[in-house]
Amino acid sequence: MATHDVKTDPLADDKKIEDIEEKKTSSDAEIEANQLEIDEKEARRILSKVDYRLVPVLALLYLVAFIDRSNIGNAKVAGLTADLHMHGLQYNTAVTLFFVPYTLLEVPSNIVLKLMRPSRWIAILMFSWGVVMTLMGLTSSYGGLLAGRFFLGVTESGFFPAATFLLTLWYRRYEVQRRMAVFYVAASLSGAFSGLLAYAIQKLEGRSGLGGWQWIFIIEGLVPVGLATIIWKVLPDSPETARFLTQPERDFLVRRLADETGSGRGHVTNQDKMGKKYIIAGLSDWKIWAAVVIFWGNTVGVYGFTATVPTVINGLGYSAANAQLLTIPIYVFASIVTIIFAWWSDYAKTRSPFIIAGFAIACCGFIAQLAIPHPKYPGLTYGFLFPVAGGLYCPFIILVSWIANSLAPSSKRAVGMALLISVGNMGGIMGSNIYLEREKPKYKTGFGVSLAMCCTAIAMTFVIRMAYKRENTKREALLREHGEEVIRARYTEQEMLDLGDKSPFYRYTL
Questions:
Q1: For 71-141, where are the alpha helices, taking DSSP H only?
Q2: Which among 110, 132, 383, 498 has most CB atoms closer than 10 A?
Q3: Taxonomically, which superkingdom (predicted)?
Q4: Number of domains making up the chain
Q5: Per-residue model confidence as pLDDT tens digits over 96-143
């Protein structure tokens, strides 16, 4: 029986192996792509649940908070200064006093926030400022008004840094800003609601022997008192403890947030415990202090503008009641611009160009206000209040998101964000004293200083962008030179998490 040797072709075998490997690689790629698509769909579904539960609640609370801190402008038009026999710079002093405790207590407040449940701390703050605001409506002297403004600053100091930090615990860096914008736009809308409420409330003038401005304080103070009684039950604290999510949903959110380093490599954590090293790290980062200058570009203009705009419009020849109503379209416009910029910035995955664009719009508005001969053209003057408001409001939330994107772990972020907001709000002290009563309706000092601060903010934005870009470039070069595995071998997993934004794998947003 004849036998034949079976010979194999090595080249054919290699080709078969290559085909198998290629099919395997292709299959792995398809599996990975499908898994990514599933993860993204799952993320959208879960984030929608978070959105409906978290964002509207914070937006409502911030609307109430901003109305209460800025309604003194409406109260002035409703007779506050006349009834309390105020003159000269006394109104400016009352506005300014709010910012002294407000700026000093924001960092301590966020440290407390990190040590206890955010929902309970925010409820305590709300109840406290509501009581203070209500009592301000019962004051009959200038000294009582000053005391009320001071304690309003004490009790409101922790809310904004607490709310913005809380949002960063739930969303990734290019998801958080659009949510933060919806939350922050409540500040823009507060001007509209405040004007509308004041228009209605001041009609209670004389009821129970109280002035219209007193009713504004009382009614707008009772609202946060009522909300505080339920908010501690409604507001969720973190993904790890959210009862409205299932355990797999909670785990999914925690996992995707841990991977958010900006480079696709390494990990960050929101589970770190507040400690001395994070407090020092948050207070000593020079880029936060540089961002404070940008923040001043906003607060100098916004707080001065918010407290003065009803008077500016009133000085153009409109009645007090109509001046309240005419503030509404301005703040609605500012809200729309803020939302557009926030969504666009997240879509483009960049921050600094939108900050610069916003302040540039505000600059155009301020230049127009300085150039127009007030009150000769009231319609034109009123029209250019729109770019002032839109340009001032829209870069603010982008700046807060930019700094939040660039701070890790969460304890450093809590301190750094509070520092930015607290020292940044000191611009409100300047803004409250540059719109001088004797200069109305031109307010050359107010508009001129605000213009200068916007230009300074633009310049500082370029400085921070260059610093972040240089650091990102250095880290990429380090990884190319040594390789990812070598870098990982230098640190334990916990040491890498402790490095936070100093990790070789962390990338700053530009």
A1: 72-77, 80-83, 90-97, 99-104, 106-115, 118-136
A2: 110
A3: Eukaryota
A4: 1
A5: 888 889 888 999 998 998 888 889 999 999 999 999 999 999 999 999
- Which tokens go with 210? 């109280």
- Tokens 């880029």, located at residue: 287
44 within a domain of the structure (yes/no): no
In a domain, 300, yes or no: yes
Q: Which tokens sit at 77?
A: 């038009």
pLDDT 10s digits, 368-379: 989 988 767 888
Rounded Cα distance, 326 and 122, in Å: 33
227 Cβ contact list (under 8 Å, min separation 6): 60, 61, 64, 126, 130
Q: Is residue 141 part of a domain?
A: yes
Contacts of 412 (CB under 8 A, 6+ apart): 278, 281, 282, 500, 501
What pTM did the predictor assign?
Answer: 0.80
**Rounded Cα gap, residues 407 and 176, in angstroms:** 14
Does residue 382 form part of some domain? yes
H/E element, 18: helix 10-70
Look up the CATH number of the domain holding residue 383: 1.20.1250.20
Closest CA to 188 of 86, 50, 337, 74: 337
Single out the residue of 294, 289, 287 nearest to residue 459, CA to CA.
294
- Which of these ranges, 28-42, 43-57, 232-246, has the smallest mean pLDDT? 28-42
Q: Which domain holds residue 343?
A: 52-237+281-502
